[in-house]
Amino acid sequence: MQPHIVVHGAGSVGCYLGGCLAAAGAFVTLLGRPRLQAEVSKHGMLLTDLHGNERRVPVGSIDFVTDPAVLASADLILITVKSLATEQAAAELRAHALQSALLISFQNGVSNAAVLRQRLPPRTVLAGMVPFNVLHRAAGHWHRGTEGEPLVARHPALQPYLNRFADAGLPLHERDDMQGVLWGKLLLNLNNAINALAGLPLREQLAQRTYRRCLALCMEEALTIMNAAQITALQLARIAPSRMPTLLSLPDWLFSRLAGRMLMIDPLARSSMWEDLQRGRATEIDYLNGEIVRLAAAYGRAAPVNAQVTTLVKAAEQGGRSDWSGPELLMQLRRA
Questions:
Q1: Of 23, 93, 137, 214, which is the most exposed, with the fewest CB atoms less than 10 Å away?
Q2: Which class in CATH covers the domain with range 179-335?
Q3: What is the rounded CA–CA span in Å between residue 249 and residue 247?
Q4: In the CATH hierarchy, which top-level class contains the domain 4-176?
């Protein structure tokens, strides 16, 4: 009998992961909102990527449910809820999931797996990381706009699933240093807010020096605070984290020459935070830039740049601006 994989929190990333696994023949159930349940029931699933690959899940070929009771039959649970829903997910997992089920947190932020582990003893909870961006383009259509392959903490319980993920085009790379990986991803994810405030596709935003300088200020401040806390962010891009602010601040012509691969992004790709703002949802800002602000406070320091970004995103959540030009946004952060 095939193992049962449940994706808990089937939004953009969760639908892409679960859809690709189902298209490759895995036994998958998606657990998410009624709106997406109705969409998948009507349209099935189309999963595309920046390389032109395409996978389909026909109507009726995958179960999409809204009742967390489905967790009771899961052998593997992929947790893809937003960070602000981690506590609720933990309560649902505690109420329904088997203690023998393997849990992988594929969430943004650096502490979700630890929170789940604390709330769910003695279950096995592994930290994971999805490096690529997924955009919900149209009804039943999810598009992967950037490169990368999932990373996960090394554990023997993963062995039965490695081939299934590889067959789905999602090879899992096992790591012994996931906390450093998560901090490395957090540094890159500081751009989520810049992209959301710019209101532009990622490639267009990163091609403009003023927006990159905004990101450089956020990263530079974060690296200073992380150094004080003796936290090491692992290198996930082609350049070391410590050199990233300098690279981002280069003139456009030199940046494109030295870091052209950073602009090898699908023209449609945008950050998940931009998508949250467009749909009127709360963002994960408190678990990204806000994480730097909290870390600074814990060490008696301030993180004014990341605090200002957090303030601007929260204002956008309430109907404020999400169309800042590069010069305008840079001025706001420099004033901070």
A1: 137
A2: mainly alpha
A3: 5
A4: alpha beta
